[in-house]
Amino acid sequence: LSAAENPFHAARLEALRFRHGPPVDELLRRLQEFRGRGALVGPKGSGKTTLVVEIAARLRELDWKAPVVRLDPEWCRSGATLADHFSRAGSEEGVFAKNQSDAFRSDVDHGDKVVWFLDGAEQLGFLDWRWALSRTRHADGFVVTTHLPGRLPLLQETRTSPELLMGLVAELVAASNDGFPDPASEECRALWTRHCGNLRECFRELYDDWSRRK
Amino acid sequence: LQWAFSGAVHRMERLSIELIARESATYRHGTDTRTDKSLFSRIPLLETIDRSEMRAGENEVPLPTEVTPGFCGGNNRIEWLVRVRGEIVRGPGVDDEFPVQMIAAMRDHTTPPLDQGGPELIEGNGLRLGLKGGRTSYLPGESLEGVAAWALESAPKKAELRLFWYTEGKGTSDLGVVQTEVFESPEAQAVNPFRFDLPYEPFSLDGRLVSVRWALDLVVLAPKETLMRLDFVISPTGQAFRIEEVPDERRETKGGWGIVGR
C-alpha cells in the first residue's frame, strides 16, 4: 500500500479523538475547581497530547487563548531556553508581553482569558519548573502533561488498554476501505503488550505492516 | 564521480560507492519526534578491492532516464545521496553520505494525451468544482483550467481557490500553497472560470512512507467555512511516481581509522 492509502498514516492518527475519559467540558469544569491548575498524567503514547489538543481547541471555541508549549527531548540541547519556548507559543496564539519587564503580567494586562499548556513537563528540572510556575501565575490556567503525578493536581489520568487499541484499529481500517481485514484481537493484544501500552508505537508497527501489503 | 581519501587508506579492504535514494518521514507528535527511512533505489557506482584505486579516482555511470526526483517538504523528504562505504577488517570502517540534488528529465509536451477520466464537475454543500475536459493529470508547467461555482442562500463573506501540494504518510503532513485566487465580492450564486500556471515541482508520488499529492481547495465562508477538494496529478509521465522499497545492506560502521573521504 502506498503512504496515502495506509490506514495508519499520520493525518488519520491525528484525527483520532481522545476516548477512555470524561468529555472535555467535564475536564474544564474540573480545571475550574482546581483554580485553573491541573496535570494530565500518563505513560508515553496514552493520549496526553491528543487531550491537550482537544482541550485547547475547546477553549479557543469559547474565545479563550490557549498557547501550547511543547518540549521534545531535545529542547534544552537546541540552545533555546524555556522562556523562548513560552514566547514562541504565546506569539503563535496572540499572547504577547508588552515589554521585557511586563513579561510576567502580560496575560492580565491584555485582558485575555489565557490557559497555558505545557506538554512534557516531566523534562523540566527544579529551576525551570519554578520559572514555568512564575510565568503562568497570572494566567487563568496552567495545564501540564507529565508521566508521574505530583506537580499539579491530577486533572486526568490517561491509560490505554488492548480493547481501546482494537477499537481504534477497527475504526482506522474501516475508514480506509482497502479491503484488508482488521488485525485479530489476539494480534492487537500482543501488539499492545509488546509496546507496553504505547499506542503511538503500536500504530507505527501497524503502519509498517500495512505498507508491505499488496 | 570523483573521490579521494586521505589517512590510512591501506587499512581499507574494500570500497563501495553507490547512488542511493530513500524516503524519509519525520513524525512529530507532542513530545515525540521520530524519523523513518526507506530505501527505494541503489545504483552501484564503484566496487573495488584495489587499494590504488581506493585512494582517488573518477568514474562515469549513466543514470536511468526516469528517476524519482528529490523532494524536501520539511517533515517528508525524497533524498538522493552518494553513499561511500569502506570496510576495514577488525575495525570500524568508513560510512559517509553526500547529498545529491536529483531533478527529473522533462518529457516533450507532445506526450500522448494524459488521463482524462475525471468528472466534469464535483458537487457538494452547494459548491461545484471541475477541471476542463475532466482532466486528472497534468505535465509540470502546464496550465490548469476549470470552473469554481457555488449556489448558496446568501452571499458568502469570502471565497477563494487554493492550489497546493500536501503530503500523506508516516510523517507529519507538510503542505505548500502555491497560488491562491480570491474571488472578490462574491455573490450568492456564481460561476468563476479559473486558470493556474502549474509549477515544475514537486511531482506527484506514492511511496511507502511518503505520498505527495496536488489539489485544489475551494473555500467559501458562508458564514461557516465550507471546503471542496479536487485532487489531481502533476508528473512528466502523467502518473504519480510509484516507489517501492528495496533491501538495504547497510552495516553499522560509523567512524573510521582516521580515513577521510570527499
- Flag low-confidence runs of chain B: 252-258
Give the end-to-end Cα distance of chain A, rounded to a whole number of Å.
Answer: 6 Å
Poorly predicted runs of 5 or more residues of chain A? none
Helix content of chain A: 40-55%
Q: Which pair of chains has the greatest number of interface residues, and how are they split between the two chains?
A: A-B, 29 and 26 residues
Q: Give the strand order of the largest sheet of chain A, numbering strands 1, 2, ... along the chain.
A: 2-3-4-1-5
- Strand percentage of chain B, roughly? over 45%
Report the end-to-end length of chain B measured between terminal Cα atoms.
Answer: 11 Å
* Computed Rg of chain A: 19 Å
Give the proportion of residues in helices of chain B: under 10%
Structural class of chain A: alpha/beta
What coarse outline of chain A follows from CA principal-axis ratios?
elongated
The major sheet of chain B is characterized as: 7 strands, mixed
Residue-averaged pLDDT of chain B: 86
What is the quaternary state of this protein? heterodimer
Give the integer mean of the pLDDT values of chain A: 87
Number of helices of chain B: 1
Counting DSSP H or I runs of 4 or more residues, the number of helices of chain A is 9
Outline the structure in words:
The complex is a heterodimer of chains A (214) and B (262). By secondary structure, chain A is of the alpha/beta class. Chain A contains nine helices and five strands. Chain A has helices at 10-14, 24-33, 48-61, 82-93, 106-109, 126-135, 162-176, 185-194, 199-211; strands spanning 37-41, 68-70, 115-119, 141-146, 154-157. In chain A, strands 2-3-4-1-5 form a five-stranded parallel beta sheet. In chain A, helix 2 (24-33) crosses helix 3 (48-61) and helix 7 packs across helix 8. Chain A is elongated and about 55 Å long. The mean pLDDT of chain A is 87. The longest helix of chain B is centred in the first third of the chain and has 5 residues, at 51-55. The radius of gyration of chain B is 24 Å and the shape is elongated. Residues 252-258 of chain B have low confidence and may be disordered. Chain B has one helix and 19 strands. The termini of chain B are close together. Chain B has 262 residues and is mainly beta. Chain B has one helix spanning 51-55, and strands spanning 2-6, 14-29, 32-48, 56-58, 71-72, 76-87, 94-100, 122-124, 127-131, 137-138, 143-151, 158-169, 175-182, 189-197, 205-206, 210-221, 225-234, 241-242, 260-261.
